[in-house]
Amino acid sequence: MAVRNQNGLMQAMVLDAPGEKVQMRAIPRPRPGPSQLLIEIAACAVCRTDLHVVDGELPHPKLPIIPGHEIVGRVIASGENVRDFVVGERIGIPWLGWTCGHCRYCLGGQENLCPNAKFTGYQIDGGYAEYTLADARYCFRIPDRYSDSEAAPLLCAGLIGYRALKMTGNAARVGIYGFGAAAHIAAQILHYQGRKLFAFTRRDDLAAQEFAGKMGAAWTGSSDTMPPEELDAAIIFAPVGALVPAALRAICPGGIVVCGGIHMSDIPAFPYDILWREKRLVSVANLTRQDAEEFLRLAPQVPIRVTMESFPLSEANTALTRLREGKLTGAAVLIPKRVDVSLS
Ligand SMILES: [Zn+2]
Ligand SMILES: [Zn+2]
User: Rounded to the nearest whole angstrom, what is the distance from the C-alpha of residue 84 to the centroid of ligand 1?
Assistant: First the structure.
């Protein structure tokens, strides 16, 4: 495949310091190391975690950093140790970018908890760019039925939604608090599995409630109200700690509340009585490669349909602002518009 930029530069949206906007830059296109792929990016979805990185709510990002960890693109070069992918193949790059392989978590099937892990768009430059590098061992083939921009949100919204759903076991009545990108994918899996969905949104967010209804919710309402029947499980995707006691109140004895985000505002104190009777409160952290393999097999079977809005790469700040303000329906996806970058 021809490399378009003769001078070896690429466009990227770069975060210099938390709290600032991402800035369009022309920077050298990276070269793959022995286990890496060089990817020409076709689409990169925008995740709430990107907002937490940009807003400085996650500690110690690599700086400057190119955010973005829901990347779909094509392999244009690979290192000498790569065996699994060939040039021209379409692949997806998720949040989990590298793990150590020898800690107790890696050895015990919980690589998502590896203390040495590196994450895409946080400690490794990510997908708000025309090209990126990825360790081939953490990349996945994308099912053919999806276009590039439809597939991108599967790689975090989909994967984290799937891992959160797995934690609810076979709960028949599931509440979801915060109806954005992850929720709209989880809703379709719940529907496919014959489970009943109760969707909670910000108060008076009728657009989100209508969207949830279209995605198969049996009931929609605002997050400060109780559902019409007891829930067996609840997943909280909104980064709002006050939802934890609300969800604990909504679930039945023996039920589970799953916190699906990487960051949440402080959880207010609550009476022990709402946790009593073997209710469980857990978080979901990151993903394993097994989650990705399972989920990408399941997605075309459901089949999961992705609702998204696309933005040119140069409008990454607009997409982030829309996400922060809850003004997106489904997922935002950035599309690099390739133009020759010439600084000299
Ligand atoms: Zn490890
Ligand atoms: Zn994410």
Answer: 22
In the chain, the domains with their CATH numbers are: 9-153+287-335 (3.90.180.10), 159-283 (3.40.50.720)
**Centre of ligand 2 from the C-alpha of residue 255, in Å:** 26
Distance in angstroms (rounded) separating the CA atoms of residues 304 and 3: 33
- Is residue 183 within 8 Å of 331, Cβ to Cβ? no
Q: Of the ligands numbered here, which is closest to the C-alpha atom of 98? A: 1
Cα of 106 vs centre of ligand 2, distance in Å, is 21
Question: Which of 117, 119, 124 has its CA nearest to residue 103?
Answer: 117
Q: pLDDT for 216-245, tens place per residue? A: 999 999 999 999 999 999 999 999 999 999
Question: How much distance in Å is there from the Cα of 116 to the middle of ligand 1?
Answer: 6
Using the mean position of ligand 2's atoms as its centre, give its distance from the Cα of residue 156 in Å.
4
- Residue carrying the six token digits 């075309």: 300
**Distant-in-sequence, close-in-space partners of 343: CB < 8 Å, separation ≥ 6:** 9, 26
Q: How far is the CA of 180 from the centre of ligand 2 (A)?
A: 12
Nearest ligand to the C-alpha of residue 108? 1
Q: Which percentage of the chain shows pLDDT scores above 90?
A: 93
Angle value at C-alpha 65, between 25 and 75, nearest 5 degrees: 80
**pTM exceeds 0.85, yes or no:** yes
State the DSSP H helix or E strand holding residue 38, giving kind and residue range, or none if neither.
Answer: strand 36-46
Whole-number Å distance, alpha carbon 186 to ligand 1 midpoint, is 28
Q: How far is the CA of 183 from the centre of ligand 2 (A)?
A: 13
Over the stretch 44-102, which tens digit does the pLDDT of each residue have?
999 999 999 999 999 999 999 999 999 999 999 999 999 999 999 999 999 999 999 99
